[in-house]
Amino acid sequence: MDQFKGKTAFVTGGASGIGLALCRAFGRRGMNVVIADVETAACAEAVETLRGEGIRAIGPECDVSDRDSLVQAAARAFSEFGQVHILCNNAGVSRAGPLEQVAPSDWDWVIGVNLKGLIHGLQVFLPHMKAHGEDGHIVNTASMNGVAGAALAGPYCATKFATVGISEVLAAELAGSPIGVSVLCPSWVKTRMLDNGRNRPAQFGGPIALSLDGGNAERNRRYAQALASGLDPAVVAQLVLDGIEARRLYIFTHADRRNDIERRFDAMMHGFDAMIEKAPELTPLATGRPERG
Q1: Which of 156, 161, 223, 252 is catalytic?
Q2: 23-70, pLDDT tens digit by residue?
Q3: How far apart (Å, rounded) are the C-alpha atoms in residues 122 and 127?
Q4: Domain that holds residue 212
Q5: Domain assignment present for 2
Q6: pLDDT in tens, 72-103
Q7: Active-site annotation holds for 156
Q8: Which of 31, 72, 173, 177 could form a cystine bridge with 26, CB 3.0-4.6 A?
Q9: Is residue 292 located within the same domain as residue 210?
């Protein structure tokens, strides 16, 4: 997809951080933007800010973990702007701690937003995008924690690994169609992600202040420092635009994280090597070489 003017982008989690930067970048390319966000006041403020910059924007309140909420936000997008061409499944949350200590309600919250929200977005918008038949693109926001795990980030890693896997499946299913697929895997970016507990809905335990998260205080301190020195979200948005234009599946933001991926795949290759050494009779199958009759 390389023509943006006059088309429409729907961005979940669009009221701040990477989401707002995406909305602004799309708007500056002449697109209509739909800022879908659970944080009502921030959403309204973002809409007014973008309108002040000459961008056509609306901001339906949207809790992506609630399918009906997303359906209603989509209906408003269709009513206001007609067809949607770019879908950014960007909304995301995280709860930290050792796997066995993360509360069941927080597992439900992270899975509800990060994974079910992604599924809801695809099931609501993909039939629409296929039906209108014009060039389009889907961007799913994962994380470097979707390709390399990290201690104390179990729910987040679980859902972001799932985001990567679903994106690969989707790209295979849409191969040859007018709809491209990208999975965004950012590292440290200047956002309020660390304080996402402010938006935890009542059914998952209600808002939680970062200052009350005493069990993860040291981890949160380190994360806060990394986020403060992170990449400007506007730079990430430009990388996404480039990825959409090139129809690139993986969009990364930090070259220095390549080593993390190499270490992960080295560990996988070590597993294969150990298997081949211990079970040489399986070598033809393991290496993909057919046995000769």
Answers
A1: 156
A2: 999 999 999 999 999 999 999 999 999 999 999 999 999 999 999 999
A3: 8
A4: 8-253
A5: no
A6: 999 999 999 999 999 999 999 999 899 999 99
A7: yes
A8: 31
A9: no
